[in-house]
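All the exercises in this workshop are built on plain-text protein records. There is nothing in a record beyond a sequence line and a structure line. A learned vocabulary of local backbone shapes supplies the integers on the structure line. The question running through the whole workshop is how a given chain folds. Here is such a record, shown just as it appears in the course material:

***
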Amino acid sequence: MSTHTTALDHDPLAHLMDRIESSDDAIAKAVQSTMLTPRFYTTDFKAMDRLDVSPVRAEWDTMMKEYEGDNNHDHFQRDAEFAEEVRTLMPQLSPEMRQEFLDFLISSLTSEFSGCILYNEIRKNISNPDIKQLMTYMARDESRHAGFLNQSLKDFNLGIDLGSLKRTKSYTYFKPKYIFYATYLSEKIGYARYITIFRQLERHPDKRFHPIFRWFERWCNDEFRHGESFALIMRAQPHLLQGLNKLWIRFFILAVYATMFVRDHSRPLLHEAMGLDSTRYDYEVFRITSQICRQVFPVEVDIDHPVFKACLERLLDLSKRNDLAKAQGGLLGKLKSAGLAVQAALTFGRLFLVPVKSQALPATVRCEPVW
């Protein structure tokens, strides 16, 4: 099967099924909870309160000083050039491209706001001074990111009421260790995604179709630091990286990679506009993320294994067929969706059996955003 996805390969129903034309459509998109959409989380606050970071105290205190310094406090401001670029470039977007970009903005906003809510809720429900301080800083950062994205949605008259989103979107309970694995990966893969886009548009400024991409370099350094925070927490609780927990780490890496691969291939026009191929872009992001994760995860997924690649392609095909089944509706459509869900679960099971690479953890936990 070819790994190159073009606009002609893209399922035309994807845009017709879920068009975003109003603020109500935007919030309905954000509220959705599916395998491919960002979720809101809650956790065990008492367990969070018991966390001890004393084994990594020196590195922790250094990181807290970086948060306190707040080097991005003046970054998320729209300048006159931003407004002019929006006025000039946005009318040039095709209707299909507009839909993909709006989907990107809404998904990114929901993901950033999800972090803001989770970190704020942990902060309010614990007394542990180290974790409370960390959550305060990270909630601050994520709030800025979500607000900045919402301003770009407002350029399309599609701003989202974040208070309403907080009240109406469903929440998923995760144990703290699952929060650590998933959120660490989310923050690090967020860095890898943003820096890959930034570097591409830095080389090809003519392909920067929206000014928001000029903010991505300093923005993704926030994401990188957030990931560093969870790396320190996990290294300070070494049992989280041993024994059967290695299987959970493996599961979350694969789930995050597979979700990204399927979701990104629903936006081929977005990547083409930036001069990126969706598949090559995703594998570059996987590669960067895997390199970063060596700081804390004792196992690494072999992204070059032929079965890994075949399973991702299979999951993408099943997702497209599921979209068609949902569009068909009725009993037959539901039966098709159920059958496809079983096939997807079996494919993920096969993906889970791909051999992983084991590695010793470095003595120094922290690393620098040098990509």
